[in-house]
Amino acid sequence: MSATIIDGKAFAADVRGRVAEQVGRLNDAHGITPGLAVVLVGEDPASQVYVRNKGKQTVETGMNSYEHKLPAETGEAELLALIERLNADPEVHGILVQLPLPDHMDSDLVINAIDPAKDVDGFHISNVGLLATGQKAMVPCTPLGCLMMLRAHHGNLSGLNAVVVGRSNIVGKPMAQLLLRDSCTVTIAHSRTRDLAEVCRGADILVAAVGRPEMIPGDWVKPGATVIDVGINRIERDGKRKLVGDVEFVGANRIAGAITPVPGGVGPMTIACLLANTLTACCRANGLPEPQGLTA
Ligand SMILES: NC(=O)C1=CN([C@@H]2O[C@H](COP(=O)(O)OP(=O)(O)OC[C@H]3O[C@@H](n4cnc5c(N)ncnc54)[C@H](OP(=O)(O)O)[C@@H]3O)[C@@H](O)[C@H]2O)C=CC1
Ligand SMILES: Nc1nc(=O)c2c([nH]1)NC[C@@H]1CN(c3ccc(C(=O)N[C@@H](CCC(=O)O)C(=O)O)cc3)C=[N+]21
Predict the structure, then answer these.
(1) Residue 198: is its pLDDT beyond 90?
(2) What is the pTM of this model?
(3) Whether residue 258 sits in one domain with residue 183
(4) 63 C-alpha to center of ligand 1: Å?
């Protein structure tokens, strides 16, 4: 028997629909339009695709999109000055600085210059600390999207064994925090983990966020487990360019209970959650009630 495919595209369309509806009501009742500013430094082709998709979907949900494209050689001071302007701009409720930044910039410094209330990526140290201590934070979009799909699929996650492979600040660590908050027993694995296969086989929920094409084979998956594949890897196979995850899909699909595909899994939900976070930030900035069903 094969696994249930968790359709991230459909989930994302649902989230976007709910965002659009609440944006419409916000506009009708208060004359407010949420605004998202996306800053891209340099010309990484993959980043350009994401930024274009984000801008398009922002406008489709009735929000304002402000794109700032800076050349790769932009100085750090110039980027910080732009962030200052966006922090002060009342029309801008969310700010996203696309990562990675060019090598000559200090990413931590840049991210921590963003007003935490506008930090829709949830990467600012204030938001990281708020999430870790169980307080109201802006929650990183990719882990938030994964959590929404897991909750929808499982209902209650309490007591389940969750293994997160990857410990980055943008995916692995916040994912682990969210699973812990939902009372999973959480293991974070990484490149130094001993016997990763055995660790993975203990997982009721397996989240792969590594960045290595198809490194997790089917026989690392516990029968019936839910597999969330965050990996986005561009490879060439049989002369064709292809997008694959960190999980070997065909093998894992035979053993898992449910699995997210790549593409069409976590990726679309990341963008939908970015829109949801922008709406949340706008509501908070205006002292209005939180949007329903769109926060963690
Ligand atoms: N779908 C989406 O919306 C998004 C997808 N992504 C994708 O998710 C993947 C991960 O991204 P990100 O977290 O930024 O990546 P990073 O490169 O920042 O982190 C990768 C993590 O994987 C671990 N790792 C590397 N090799 C191994 C190994 N052989 N065994 C076990 N662990 C290993 C690293 O361990 P160590 O710390 O020890 O080095 C590290 O913690 C990428 O494919 C990225 O493109 C990212 C963001 C959003
Ligand atoms: N500050 C910042 N915040 C981010 O959230 C951020 C970032 N920087 N840098 C890069 C990563 C990566 N990321 C993705 C978003 C959407 C898809 C996505 O929509 N993927 C589609 C396929 C798109 C394609 O074909 O390339 C899918 O999986 O179906 C993927 C990856 C956000 N990131």
Answers:
(1) yes
(2) 0.98
(3) yes
(4) 31
